[in-house]
Amino acid sequence: MVKDNCPIGYDNISRIYDVSRAANVETVEKLVRLLHVSSDSVLLDLGCGTGNYTASLQQVAKSVMGIDISISMIERAQAKSPVLQFICGDVTNLPFNSETFDGAFAIQVLHHVKKKEIFLMEARRVLRKNAYIVIHSCSHRQMQAFWFYHYFPKGVEKDIKRTPDVGEIASLLERTGFSNIGIEICYHDVVVAHETPERYLDKNYRDGISTFTLLTKDDIELGCEKLQKDIASGAVESTVQQYEAKVAAVGGSSIIYGRKN
């Protein structure tokens, strides 16, 4: 993605990104299945961040290349996985020849990209015939089921505004020339790792989540005060349980996929 497309300062976030992020087993399994990954597959991780999913897919594919606009993210990814290839570049202007990859995936990336159709058209260009793309995102219903928005309500407003709903993502795939489009729900997936109410009182943990870069200092302070009070009283447990029941019904995230004809 280009800097104009991604206003979030991921060069700064990169140093603490892995505090709150990790590759999720369920997501990895779905990626392998939906991308039809084999030991001969050459894959592209679009907006790879610190390379958590790049490294996970490399265990079953021939090769996986990661690309991200943030040089700091790329440097951290390369340090973690020195044998893998990472490139600092723009997902709306991919520096690859046409029909290079057997599959491509983007994990929680699309909401950062303003030129979404160009992004998907570029992804389609570099895919070989009959190759699949997988977009990992969250539906608006799923976001509304996340308990931390109870304490930071402005966050859900901003995240829904910048995130296309899953039906819109499916339509974007169709408009950019993909077929065999489908949507799957991830029931055990989480957007962030090691999530507990107490973790959100830690600035380092919050700083690894882009939602908090969109909130004002007052929004964050008020939310933390309310959260700290509920942790002390024990009220947070019932709040989390109520929201977890919603997640059990609608899922924690979604995968939208399509095939290049």
Keywords:
seven-stranded mixed beta sheet, alpha/beta, 7 strands, disordered N terminus, Rossmann fold, globular
List the helices and strands and how they pair.
Blueprint: H1 10-13, H2 17-20, H3 25-34, E1 42-46, H4 52-58, E2 63-68, H5 71-80, E3 85-88, E4 101-107, H6 116-126, E5 127-137, H7 140-144, H8 148-151, H9 153-162, H10 166-175, E6 178-186, H11 203-207, H12 217-233, H13 235-250, E7 253-260
Parallel strand pairs: 1-2, 1-4, 2-3, 4-5
Antiparallel strand pairs: 5-7, 6-7
Question: Describe it for me?
Answer:
There is one protein chain. The radius of gyration is 18 Å and the shape is globular. Residues about 1-10 and about 10-15 have low confidence and may be disordered. It starts with 9 loop residues before the first helix and ends with a strand. It is built from 13 helices and 7 strands. The longest helix has 17 residues, at about 215-235. It has helices spanning about 10-15, 15-20, 25-35, 50-60, 70-80, 115-125, 140-145, 150, 155-160, 165-175, 205, 215-235, 235-250; strands spanning about 40-45, 65-70, 85-90, 100-105, 125-135, 180-185, 255-260. The chain has a single domain, classed as 3-Layer(aba) Sandwich (Rossmann fold), CATH 3.40.50.150. It is of the alpha/beta class. α5 (about 70-80) links the parallel β2 (about 65-70) and β3 (about 85-90).
